[in-house]
Structure prediction request, 224 residues.
Amino acid sequence: MKTVNIAIDGPAGAGKSSLAKKLAFHLGYTYIDTGALYRSVAFEVIRKGLSPNDLERIKDILVDTDISFQHVDGTQRVFVNGEDVSEKIRTNEISSAASTVSAFPEVRSYLLDLQRNIARTENIVMDGRDIGTVVLPNADVKIFLTASAEDRATRRFEEQKDDENAVSYNDILQAIIIRDKNDTEREVSPLKPASDSVLLDNSGFTPEQTLETVLEIIGRKINV
Ligand code: DC
Prediction:
């Protein structure tokens, strides 16, 4: 049976993962968070006390690292060598290390088969940076979701402002600008819209407006 693949790409903080999760729920598809895979590699690198720039050592780590998704109580969790790291990969340190390790072609090709194999077996909504361009060039629907850096920083700031380790708006904005630069300027699979993707700038949108707009786009492309 042919599976349906929906690709959601875009920069950090555009709301890809919350959109992709809601879409998957709405359509009864599986949500695949590819950023979690790069974060898992970064997690292992940091846990072993290595620098995220140390490609030679990172290549050794890849050989010994098994990353998988599993469903636990209805939510998707990510496991590294059998350990559930779903929360541990969400720190600012891991975000920045993930951006660094994701620039290495060796890391990208290691994760490519994993992503494609998942997409082959079920209907999915997959979010990332290069899903429409590289991972699933034949995806049924491709959305490139973006918003201004200021809008994205405001959303991130609001999400974490009451946390114990809250970070200032300016620090978040600077981190977003640096990550955008890393993600768009790297040589391998840079962040860019696929030529057949639908571009959606959701600056000023509520999450509900983004979901409605994307459901309309999907409805025009395929019968769901
Ligand atoms: O979406 P995220 O913030 O969890 O992604 C973490 C990092 O991983 C991000 O800086 C870029 C990288 N990434 C990537 O290069 N390709 C993907 N398909 C997904 C994420």
Q: What stands out?
A: Residues 105-121 form the longest helix (17 residues). Residues 12, 34-35, 38-39, 95, 98-99, 102, 128-131, 179, 183 surround 2'-deoxycytidine-5'-monophosphate (CB under 6 Å).
